[in-house]
Amino acid sequence: MRIAETVTFGGSGLDRAGRLRGDAEGLAGLLKAGRILPVWRGRPLCADGGHLGWLEAGHPALAGADAPVFLGLDGDLPRFAADISHWSAEAGAEAVQAGFFDPSFQTHPALPGALGFGELRGVMLRLSPREAELAATAKALVQWHRSHRFCSACGAPSAPTEGGWHRRCTVCAAQHFPRTDPVVIMLVTHGNRALIGRSPGWPEGVHSCLAGFVEPGETIEAAVRREVLEEAGVTVGPVRYLASQPWPFPASLMMGCHGIALTEEITLDPAELEQACWVSREEMLTVMAGRHPAIKPAREGSIAHFLIANWLADRLD
What we know:
GO terms for molecular function: metal ion binding; NADH pyrophosphatase activity. It is an enzyme of class 3 (hydrolase). Belongs to the Nudix hydrolase family. NudC subfamily. One of its GO terms (cellular component) is cytosol. Residues 178-302 form the Nudix hydrolase domain. By secondary structure, the protein is of the alpha+beta class. The chain folds into three domains: 4-147, no CATH class; 148-179; 181-312, Nucleoside Triphosphate Pyrophosphohydrolase (Alpha-Beta Complex), CATH 3.90.79. The chain has helices spanning 24-33, 120-123, 129-147, 220-232, 281-288, 303-312; strands spanning 35-40, 43-47, 69-74, 77-83, 105-106, 115-118, 158-161, 166-169, 175-176, 181-190, 193-198, 210-213, 236-247, 252-261, 275-280. The strands form three sheets. The protein has a six-stranded mixed beta sheet with strand order 3-4-1-2-6-5, with helices on both faces. The longest helix has 19 residues, at 129-147. It is globular and about 60 Å long. The model is unreliable at 91-98 (pLDDT under 50).
């Protein structure tokens, strides 16, 4: 699939500069010359109309932030991210909503009103490929540090090292590395039709490709076949890899595949799927155009939307 990396959060050619991560003194110098992306409770700082909001080291909005993590070199400009989730919005400020997607935009008193913290799902399509890669990396790393503050070997506190790409236990010296969970997401077809489904709790009408986590000791191909059989009762034969997408919600790598169904009858696992159905190319065109009376498409920017759109355009090869 020649256009595989054009998916949102796909590779932009960022120089992650792993060679510089072990030089603490050098990183301190880069921090002074670089720019920092604040992340508040999983939300990157961004402008109301799109684009990320980068701050200089020492900015008042970064007061009390965790140690910045080094994202890499954007050309000659060092890029970092810092977690400021300790900050609490002032009384009366717009509250952050719970749910599948929160469209609220939280401003900070030390920043101009045009800048605020928005959910990445809501701004990802307005970001350049480079900004999208930086935002996905920042969100995933910051959330990993927040959830892995203690050593899984002995339970003692751990501390960030290597520019934020490792954590080392302060007692037993065990090293810990950022976690990425492998997930298969599959466009399953049978002739002129594709299999789509919806999980309980999704917005009304939204359908997507089936997906699931890869289990230990399992290949990508086996995971595709197992997940489709478990969730929809459909047997899949040939499977091929198409494209991947970092999906920092919270920390997955979505591995997009194409599977050829050998059977058609659907038997739902209600714990996983609320509904599943076969949709023809002609009907899918209506779905993707937003004109279907009952089915809404996968979110634009997701690899599911990407795979379906390219299936319709006959560009999976």
